[in-house]
Design brief:
Number of helices: 19
Number of domains: 3
CATH class of the largest domain: Mainly Beta
CATH superfamily of the largest domain: TolB, C-terminal domain
Largest sheet: 4 strands, antiparallel
Strand content: 15-25%
Radius of gyration: 35 Å
Structural class: alpha+beta
Low-confidence stretches: 1-26
Mean pLDDT: 84
Strand order of the largest sheet: 3-27-26-25
Shape: elongated
Distance between the termini: 60 Å
CATH architecture of the largest domain: 6 Propeller
Helix content: 40-55%
Number of strands: 27
Length: 699
């Protein structure tokens, strides 16, 4: 009995201890996200944990609205402490080594360090028509203890010398700066829309660099075309968005930040640019509109931070790896920000982010977790083309998170290097990497053709001989005459005869239209059957088109939505064409218009099945075959539409083109009207539902 009591006490103590242990586990103040294959943020394992917040510096001072941060190869930290009009240098232990510039700086906003030279971009007073901005260059000797010996002013650059800048009434107000190994300065200047200033070490303006392209909507482009020679029309002047920030890596790539409004967090606000100004990131990469700073990592990855404190890590292709951080509401939330202004990474992959809000004035420090360490190890092998060695590391990464496409791509490349093409094919398909999938499939197809070419030739020869033999036998004994009899019997069936008449549109659409309009050789039922077959064929295309030519994610496909995409536009064009023909005194009835317009889609019924089949045997090298088939199918249908409209309504050539154009315009109007009606019905129904809920709750 005593033993049982003692055992019960021990179990209770263990339970209490375990419960206590669980209860004191700390959770991060933020979540970590990655992008799934649908382009949406999805929660993932924590990649970086917030470990420290520096608010009070070792010398007893604090930061004030610090706007820029730089970390050199020895992990010395340089801070543009804007509010205090100084630059602060911290050693790897986060201790203040030197603080300088109070006697020189007015508003230091940017900082960059190269070859022990500290470049500081000082904005100046920013007064109207005032030009007091400057670039200060200091030499930093880390072996010296005395400030005057350690920090020596080498140059003070005012407005760069250039006739071009003088002609533009240029005001020098530098906000950010990056400097390459040749000591060429790349200066972001407030209000400059032509790009970043490229200035040599002698302060001579060389050229504009990394300018943003002018983005005009279709409506704005049409306005410019119509009114470009009209002096009475004053149009709004469109100018490119200025670059907000710039940095560079050791490989010679520049990273620019632009702040523009984005739809669905997709755009080119973050760019990876070479010296020729070519952007290596997609124009629709996942990015936020309020990015303020960017920093290159050690695995060719990059980090970015937004004003609201969201931190992003991308790979070298601009694919989002992680997103974390965010907006905080209090002063004690480690890892959440009141207002972020700059980001930098040290040699240990620790992330440092400045919170420049007046109530915070701090530096947040994030340390990578084992999950992120695995990712970075795999990225390092991947970037150095050690694909085979990276397989095991990527597999370990997938144990943490099975959604990372880059992991599947890395494993696939490893299998490719091992000539395990079938395995590589599977991983490339999961990663939705069509380029590498095509390469792997080309190898599989090539090996298969080498092994089976003899058999293929034999089969082709035998089939050719068989066709000749059948023709000769049928010519002498009419053994296969039953085939013709079946065809003739099929023609006797009215429904089949009406259905097969639709194929006349392929050869002679004018005669087919006449047969429909005057001789009633086909019916609405046949047209609806053809339309149904086209829809079925469209669905089969979504499912069975080869992966290389198919961007559809089946698990996200909604059948009703696909039906609207293919059937509704066809029906709307038919209705629009009939209504326009009624206004333009067309001769065709609605029945004739419907049947003839569906008949114009017969090339789709004939060509598309073959395209679906061959898409599974082509690579990107033969993509022109598939694309030419799609193009030919569409053009053929368009020509038939033209002849059908002309013959159905008895129009001239000019009237036909006008009718088709007005039909398209009216179709667009119908779509807009339907959308408005749908929105109104939705709002009314929501109002009624909310009203009913409120009445029920009050009762």
């Amino acid at each position: 009995m005593k033993k049982k009591i003692i055992l019960l006490v021990v179990l209770l103590l263990n339970f209490i201890l375990l419960s206590t242990t669980v209860s004191i586990e700390a959770a991060s103040a933020y979540y970590t996200y990655t992008v799934d294959r649908n382009g949406d943020l999805a929660e993932t394992n924590e990649a970086y944990e917030a470990v420290e917040m520096i608010r009070n510096l070792s010398d007893g001072t604090t930061l004030s609205s610090a706007k820029d941060l730089f970390i050199d190869n020895e992990d010395y930290m340089y801070i543009a402490d804007t509010g205090n009009k100084r630059v602060v240098i911290l050693n790897p232990n986060y201790e203040v080594v030197f603080s300088f510039g109070e006697d020189k700086f007015i508003k230091p906003l940017g900082i960059h360090v190269v070859d022990n030279l500290i470049y500081v971009a000082d904005y100046g007073l920013g007064q109207v028509n005032s030009d007091i901005g400057a670039i200060y260059v200091y030499e930093f000797d880390k072996t010296k203890i005395d400030l005057e010996e350690a920090i020596v002013l080498k140059n003070e650059f005012k407005t760069p010398s250039s006739p071009i800048l003088e002609a533009e009434n240029f005001l020098f107000r530098p906000t950010k700066i990056a400097v390459d190994k040749n000591h060429t300065m790349y200066i972001v200047n407030e209000g400059t829309t032509s790009g970043v200033l490229m200035v040599n070490e002698n302060n001579r303006f060389v050229d504009y660099f990394a300018s943003n392209s002018l983005k005009l909507s279709f409506f704005e482009r049409m306005q410019r075309i119509i009114y470009q020679n009209n002096d009475n029309v004053q149009m709004t002047k469109n100018i490119p968005t200025p670059v907000f920030n710039i940095t560079l890596d050791n490989s010679g790539y520049f990273y620019t930040v632009t702040q523009t409004n984005l739809e669905s967090n997709s755009g080119d606000n973050l760019k990876k640019i070479n010296i020729g100004g070519i952007n290596f990131f997609d124009d629709d990469m996942y990015v936020y509109s309020d990015i303020v700073d960017v920093w290159p990592g050690h695995q060719e990855n990059i980090y970015a931070v937004t004003t609201n404190g969201f931190i992003f890590e991308y790979d070298n292709l601009g694919n989002l790896l992680f997103a974390w951080g965010g907006k905080g509401v209090g002063n004690d939330k480690l890892g959440l920000f009141m207002s972020a202004s700059s980001i930098a990474i040290d040699s240990h992959n620790n992330v440092f982010v400045i919170d420049d809000n007046s109530s915070r004035n701090a530096i947040h420090i994030f340390r990578e977790t084992p999950f992120a360490t695995q990712i970075h190890e795999a990225l390092d092998l991947y970037n150095n083309a050690k694909y085979v060695e990276s397989i095991e590391v990527w597999e370990e990464v997938l144990r943490y998170n099975s959604m990372l496409d880059i992991a599947y791509r890395g494993i696939g490349l490893g299998h490719m290097m091992n000539q395990e093409y079938n395995e590589a094919l599977e991983y490339f398909e999961i990663a939705r990497d069509q380029q590498q999938y095509s390469e792997a499939y080309w190898e599989i197809r090539n090996l298969s053709l080498i092994d089976t070419m003899d058999n293929i030739i034999i089969i082709v020869v035998l089939l050719a001989v068989l066709v000749v033999v059948i023709k000769q036998v049928n010519r002498r004994s009419m053994v296969f005459s039953f085939v013709g009899n079946i065809k003739e019997k099929a023609k006797e069936k009215k429904r089949l005869r009406e259905f097969f008449y639709m194929f006349h549109f392929l050869k002679n659409p004018a005669d087919a239209c006449y047969g429909i309009k005057q001789e009633k050789k086909s019916t609405l039922l046949s047209a609806w059957i053809i339309l149904g077959l086209i829809f079925i064929l469209y669905i089969l295309g979504l499912v069975y088109t080869g992966f290389i030519f198919n961007d559809v994610v089946l698990e996200n496909t909604i059948l009703l939505k696909e039906a609207f995409k293919i059937i509704i536009p066809i029906l709307l064009f038919i209705v629009s064409n009939y209504l326009m023909s009624s206004l333009m005194e067309g001769e065709g009835t609605f029945k004739a218009v419907f049947i003839n317009m569906v008949g114009a889609l017969m090339p789709v019924l004939i060509i598309y099945p073959f395209l679906i089949i061959i898409s599974n045997f082509l690579t990107l090298n033969e993509a022109f075959i598939y694309e030419f088939g799609i193009f030919g199918m569409i053009i053929w249908s368009v020509f038939i539409v033209y002849f059908n409209v002309k013959e159905t309504h008895g129009y001239t050539v000019g009237q036909t083109f006008v009718n088709i154009f007005l039909s398209i315009v009216f179709m667009v109007i119908l779509i807009i009207i339907l959308l408005i009606v749908y929105l109104m019905i939705t709002q009314v129904s929501n109002f009624v539902i909310d009203l009913v809920k409120e009445v029920i709750l009050r009762e």
